[in-house]
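Milestone M4 deliverable, item 7.
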Amino acid sequence: MLRSRWCRGPAGGRLGDRAAARGVGSGARGRPSGPLVVSVTDFTSDAYRDLPGIARRGFALRRRWPHLDGAVGMWLWTMPSARRCGSVAVWTGRRALAEFVRLPEHVAIMNQYRRRGTIRSRIRRDAEAWLMSDDHRRDVRETPRRMT
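Output delivered:
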């Protein structure tokens, strides 16, 4: 899997880049109260030829990231051999995520590619609790590791 560097949003400074990049919020100074929202998007393209366009549009949208209210940080990722790409994004709340989903640029990307593959997304309301939970530890033990 290839992934972009961590791109900090305007809310990322309050969490501390190192803590946000590791998905750990405890001990970070100035952390906003309440849970964070983590969204994970996984798009599997029907055709390899669509991946460059998806990547180009994703990176163009990423340039807006530092100016999006409620954005903590994000990575873009791709697995070209599997025709997959997506993002992992951290938000201060569901409202911030919903505002991003409604951005005209995001809507345009979805409209252009949604029928050209399969999209899956998940939202974790409280990422820190999940990362520290028994469910996560069990998932980590059961998931085979890949060298990148």
